[in-house]
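Predict the 3D structure for this chain.
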Amino acid sequence: MKRWVLLRGLMRETRHWGDFTARLQAKFPADQIICLDWPGNGVLHQQRSPSDIHGMVRYLREQLIDHGHAAPYHVVAVSLGAMAAVEWARQAPQEFISATLINTSLRPFNPFYQRLRPRNYGKLLSMLWHTPAQQEQLILQLTSNQAQAAVLAQWIGYQQQYPIARRNILRQLWAALRYRSELSRPAVPLQILCSQHDQLVDPQCSQTLAAAWQIPCITHPSAGHDLPLDDPQWVIQQLSQLISI
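Done. Predicted structure below.
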């Protein structure tokens, strides 16, 4: 039995994986799929979010041990979650079988205006004063190129049930902005998936990182930043190919 650890990003919780987890389980029925919420998100919305990636990694590893999920793992991580996966892989490569990084960006490989497209600065700041419904509508617009009304309704429901505190949004943003990776690649099998039409993060971030670390970078031609939402089956296909190598 293999264990898969799925890591979400900024302001996202485990339910935002949508039907991706069920599809992944159907593809690998004998495997264990593990989804964890970051402090400040989802069922942990009343907790304080770590303000740095190292704190996120520490929390993640402790939770896996506490719940009896023994290493090693296949890790699938999106955006901010992928930053945590990189740091985790650097600290404890023995805990990985593989890591798939989706639409992430890392200092010092790319400048700030590629890591977060400048046209989105004002939009993201405005979320601090938006209602939960307005927040989720904006996030869906920024992260999905195939947004559906049903998805938006679900996301609004998640936010209403487990509202994200303004201080936790800022702490998660700060963690993402200040994290700086080492130049050398972690000693684990890695691949990158990116979206050619990512509206939030320039795909050049994935391409530059892949070239620097000499790892595969597979590009989706139409999906948005939330690649597992826009095309879950495509992501699973890439995961299948990785573990068959």
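The chain has one domain: 3-244.
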